[in-house]
Write a structure and sequence with these properties.
- With about 50 residues, this protein is mainly beta.
- Helices cover about 0% and strands about 30% of the residues.
- It has a two-stranded antiparallel ribbon with strand order 1-2.
- The mean pLDDT is about 90.
Length: about 50
């Protein structure tokens, strides 16, 4: 099941760093949160295990 847990849009600063806010809840413990970053024609997905 997919649950929106992150802000949909983030912007980078002049150094290329990105900030993103996530909001997992206790019932998601043990799940893996997947964040995907899109840039130009590329993308990267990061998995965060919620423990």
């Amino acid at each position: 099941m997919e649950v929106p847990t992150s802000n949909a849009v983030s912007y980078s600063n002049s150094d290329g760093e990105i900030s993103n806010m996530i909001a997992p809840v206790k019932s998601m413990e043990g799940d893996t949160l997947l964040l995907t970053a899109y840039y130009d024609d590329n993308h990267a997905t990061f998995g965060i295990v919620l423990d």
